[in-house]
Design goal:
Keywords: Pyridoxal phosphate. This protein has 329 residues and is an alpha/beta fold. The chain contains eleven helices and ten strands. It starts with 16 loop residues before the first strand and ends in a 9-residue tail after the last helix. Pyridoxal-5'-phosphate binds next to helix 3, strand 7 and helix 7.
Length: 329
């Protein structure tokens, strides 16, 4: 057994694994299952809370009482951080990327309800100097007598990796109980931490499944580099490393569509289709694009060699509300 860093317990775990029988039948390919990480909680829902369990423990170990993080205007990560902070009696500051005139909707609205401080920065500043900006906020808070801790975008860093390491352990246990083996696991990739954790556990626990990330922004080489870096950082928390090459990081490119958080009508129609067919609602930024991608890859025959595919529903429902005017139009 590998000794993992400590964590606090905030998420509702284990999350269920459900069969998508009607979708599988319509496609006539592999059996598709879905792991409901959209149901890790309500205020804290989605994949970020698994990573935050490790990250926030580290903040608490350092006696911090103020969490600073960043994300897009509809960031699920920022909202989960704000919710977890309030739950634990901490304060939070979320730095959100905005080009102005965003409607008070979805996660942005919930950040306000949860009492987070909100700071807006431009897309350019977000890209070029979000870390500097968070450092400035940190310095200001220290002057005011607080003990701040910075969480990078998506909690996708070395310590955050263990959130999905633990999720992989959970999947192994569920496989045993279900008497089944998932020969491919598919998930949306946005900042790389979810993929990193699953990849690390897949290697260290000797599971040997295929893990596919479908990127929802940037491109495959970008994520191979980013995930490679996150993994290197994660090794400093355990007394083990893994041997791997960047090429083993399998990113399926081609489903970014019109760009991060931009929806095409095909993507929104797909979300509507799956909701009617299976009663599962995907989000427009991550899971909608990733599942759309998976279904397309199955249709192309690229998943013919797999029997049981597990798709991770990483959450994001609140983000759908900001797109309501684009539906049914
Ligand atoms: C952040 C997020 C992802 C992507 O996870 P990463 O670890 O950032 O790659 C996927 N789905 C949802 C709903 C998210 O909020």
């Amino acid at each position: 057994m590998i000794k993992l860093p400590n964590r606090i317990h905030l998420a509702n775990l284990p999350t269920r694994i459900e069969r998508l029988d009607r979708l599988s039948k319509e496609l006539g390919g592999p059996q598709i299952f879905i792991k409901r990480d959209d149901q890790t909680g309500s205020e804290i829902s989605g994949n970020k809370i698994r990573k935050l369990e490790y990250v926030i423990q580290e903040a608490l170990d350092q006696n911090c009482n103020y969490l600073i993080t960043c994300g897009g205007i509809q960031s699920n990560h920022a909202r989960a951080t704000a919710a977890a902070s309030s739950k634990l009696g901490l304060r939070s500051c979320v730095v959100l990327r905005s080009s102005g005139n965003d409607s008070l909707e979805g996660n942005y609205f919930l950040n306000k309800v949860l009492g987070a401080d909100i700071e807006f920065i431009s897309p350019e500043d977000y890209k070029e100097r979000r870390m500097e900006i968070m450092d400035e906020i940190k310095a200001r808070l220290i002057k005011e007598g607080h003990r701040p801790y910075i969480i990078p975008e998506g909690a996708s860093n070395g310590i955050g990796t263990f959130g999905y390491y633990t999720a992989m352990e959970e999947i192994l246990e569920q496989e045993k109980n279900m008497g089944i083996k998932f020969d491919a696991i598919v998930l949306a990739t946005g900042s790389g931490g979810t993929y990193s954790g699953m990849f690390l556990a897949n290697k260290l626990l000797g599971h040997g499944t295929k893990i596919f990330g479908i990127n929802i922004c940037d491109n495959a080489p970008y994520f191979q580099d980013r995930i490679y870096g996150i993994l290197q950082e994660s090794f400093s928390y355990i007394d083990k490393t893994i041997d791997f090459s960047k090429n083993e990081i399998e990113i399926i490119d081609g489903y970014v569509g019109e760009g991060y958080a931009q929806s095409t009508s095909e993507e929104l129609e797909f979300i509507h289709y799956l909701a009617k067919l299976e009663g599962v609602i995907l989000d427009p930024v991550y899971t909608g694009k990733a599942m759309y991608g998976l279904v397309n890859e199955i249709k192309k025959g690229n998943f013919n060699k797999y029997k049981n595919i597990l798709f991770i529903h990483t959450g994001g429902l609140f983000g759908l509300f900001s797109k309501k005017d684009l539906f049914f139009s």
